[in-house]
Amino acid sequence: MILVTGGTGFVGNAVVRELLDSSHRVRVLARRPERAALQPGPSFQAASGDVTDISSILKAITPEIETVIHLVGILAESRGARFQAVHVDATRNVVEACKGMGVGRLLHMSALGAREGAASEYHRTKWEAEEIVRASGLGYTIFRPSVIFGPRDHFTNLFARMMRLSPVVMVPGSGRGLMQPVYVGDVAKAFALSLRKKETIGKTLELGGPEKLTFDEVIERIGEAAGLRRRKLHVPMPLMRANALLAEKLLSKPPFSRDALKMLEEENTTALNALVEVFGMTPRALSEGMREYLGAA
Question: 3.40.50.720, 3.30.565.10, 3.40.190.10, 3.40.50.2300: which CATH number matches 2-148+181-208+269-283?
Answer without folding.
Answer: 3.40.50.720
